[in-house]
Design a protein that fits this description.
Number of helices: 11
Helix content: 25-40%
Strand order of the largest sheet: 1-3-2-10-9-8-7
Largest sheet: 7 strands, antiparallel
C-alpha cells in the first residue's frame, strides 16, 4: 500500500502533520501563544493605523499622535480629543474594539476606555471644592475627619494634612510593606481597614519629599465620603453629572461598550485576568473611572477653569524643576515649563495593565485627552515622548 504513495501525497501529509503539531503546541501552551501574539503586533498595528477617523477640520497632529501610539507604544486602539481655548472640540479615533483586527467593530468616539490614575483629578477637584466652600482646609489633619486614626504607633500619622495627601508628600512610600501599592505590595488598609493606619510606619517625614501614593488618594476619597455622608462614587457621579456623560466607575469585569486591552500574560507571575487583578473598590478614588476621551477632555477643561485653587494650582511648599517632566506635583497635576518665558502645560497620566491615559491642560483653557489600550515598552521614557509631542502642538496652536 505504501509503495503506491506519491511524493506529493507524502509532502501534503507531512505539511498537515507539521501544522497540527504547531497548532497543538500553541493551543496547549498559553505562554508561547501569548508571546507569538506579541510578536505579531506590527501586523496588527498596520491594520489599526488604517482605521483612523477624525471629526471635520481636526488638526492633522491628532491623527499623527494616534499613529505614533499605535506603532511605538503597543496601543492598537486609541482616542484623542482636543478642546481649543475657545471651546472648539476636535477628536480622532483608531483601531478596533475587540482583540482581532478586521473581525471587530472599529473604535468610535463613544468607545469606553479606563482612565486609570487620571481618576485622581476628580478626587483632587472635589477636595479643592470643599476647601473653597470652607468645609476643610489644606492644613486640616486627616485624622480629624477619619476618626479611625486614634492611636497611631507612628505619631507622625496624626499630623498628615489634606494638602500633603494631594501633593503625594504624606510619608507613604508606595513600595514599602506599608505603602499599599495597587499592584499588591503592602497591606489592605483603605477603604475597608482604616484602623490599620494606627499600625503602620511612614516611609519618610511628611513634607520632606514627594512619593507617589495611591493610598493617599484613597484616603482623600474617604474624606470626601465622610464630609458628604455618602459613598465616594455616589458623590462624584452626582457632583459631576455622570448621568449626562459616558463616565462610569469600573468593576472586576469589562463593560459592554469597553475596548479590549492589549495585555497578555508572558510569565508565570503575570496576571491572567486583568479585570480581577485589583481591588477596584479601593481604587475608586485613585484609578476607578472609565469613559471616552471627549467627556474626559470636557470635564477636565471645566475643572481647570474653576477659581483657584484648582487642578492647575501649584504649591509653594514644593521646590520643583519645571524644566523636567517628572514627579513634580501640584495639587492635582505635574507642571512642565521648559524655560521661563515658555508656555506652561500641566499633565496627569495613568497606567493599568494593558492601558494608558494622559491629559494635558494649559492656563488658557486648552485640553488634550489621550486614551490608549496599551502601554509603552519604554515606560516613563515612552510616555514622556508623547507628552513632548502634545506640548509642542498645543503651544503651536
Amino acid at each position: 500500500m505504501f509503495q503506491k504513495l506519491k511524493l506529493t501525497d507524502i509532502i501534503i501529509v507531512s505539511v498537515l502533520l507539521f501544522i497540527t503539531i504547531i497548532a497543538g503546541y500553541y493551543y496547549s501552551n498559553s505562554l508561547a501563544r501569548n508571546l507569538l501574539w506579541q510578536k505579531l503586533y506590527p501586523v496588527r498595528a498596520e491594520l489599526s493605523v488604517r482605521e483612523v477617523s477624525c471629526s471635520n477640520n481636526s488638526p492633522t497632529w491628532l491623527s499623527d499622535i494616534l499613529t505614533y501610539q499605535t506603532k511605538h507604544n503597543n496601543a492598537p486602539a486609541n482616542q484623542i480629543a482636543y478642546i481649543e481655548p475657545n471651546g472648539k472640540l476636535h477628536h480622532c479615533e483608531n483601531g478596533y474594539v475587540g482583540q482581532y483586527p478586521l473581525l471587530s467593530e472599529s473604535v468610535t468616539d463613544q468607545t469606553r476606555f479606563r482612565y486609570a490614575s487620571v481618576t485622581k483629578l476628580w478626587t483632587a477637584d472635589a477636595i479643592l471644592s470643599l476647601v473653597k466652600d470652607g468645609k476643610l482646609s489644606l492644613d486640616t489633619p486627616v485624622a480629624k475627619i477619619i476618626s479611625e486614626i486614634d492611636t497611631p504607633t507612628d505619631s507622625r500619622i496624626s499630623d498628615i494634612t489634606i494638602g500633603q495627601l494631594l501633593l503625594h508628600r504624606a510619608g507613604f512610600d508606595r513600595y514599602s510593606v506599608f505603602g499599599q501599592d495597587m499592584f499588591g505590595i503592602g497591606k489592605d488598609i483603605c477603604p475597608n481597614n482604616l484602623t490599620g493606619l494606627n499600625n503602620i510606619t511612614l516611609g519618610f517625614d511628611p513634607d520632606s519629599k514627594t512619593s507617589y501614593s495611591n493610598l493617599g488618594y484613597c484616603l482623600l476619597g474617604e474624606v470626601v465620603s465622610r464630609i458628604y455622608n455618602k459613598p465616594y462614587t455616589k458623590v462624584i457621579a452626582e457632583n459631576y453629572s455622570f448621568a449626562d456623560t459616558s463616565l462610569r466607575f469600573i468593576s472586576n469585569h469589562a463593560m459592554n461598550d469597553e475596548v479590549t486591552y492589549n495585555y497578555v500574560e508572558t510569565g508565570l507571575t503575570g496576571y491572567a485576568d486583568i479585570y480581577k487583578a485589583f481591588d477596584y473598590e479601593g481604587l475608586a478614588s485613585a484609578a476607578g473611572l472609565s469613559g471616552n476621551a471627549i467627556d474626559l477632555a470636557q470635564q477636565v477643561q471645566a475643572m481647570s477653569l474653576k477659581s483657584p485653587p484648582n487642578i492647575l494650582t501649584d504649591s509653594s511648599k514644593v521646590a520643583c524643576d519645571l524644566t523636567q517632566i517628572a514627579e513634580c506635583y501640584g495639587y492635582a497635576m505635574v507642571t512642565y515649563q521648559p524655560n521661563e518665558p515658555s508656555t506652561i502645560i500641566y499633565y496627569r497620566d495613568g497606567n493599568l495593565l494593558g492601558l494608558s491615559s494622559l491629559v494635558a491642560a494649559s492656563d488658557s483653557g486648552g485640553v488634550v485627552a489621550l486614551l490608549s489600550n496599551g502601554t509603552s515598552n519604554e515606560g516613563v521614557k515612552g510616555s514622556n515622548k508623547v507628552k513632548m509631542m502634545i506640548y509642542q502642538h498645543m503651544i503651536d496652536q
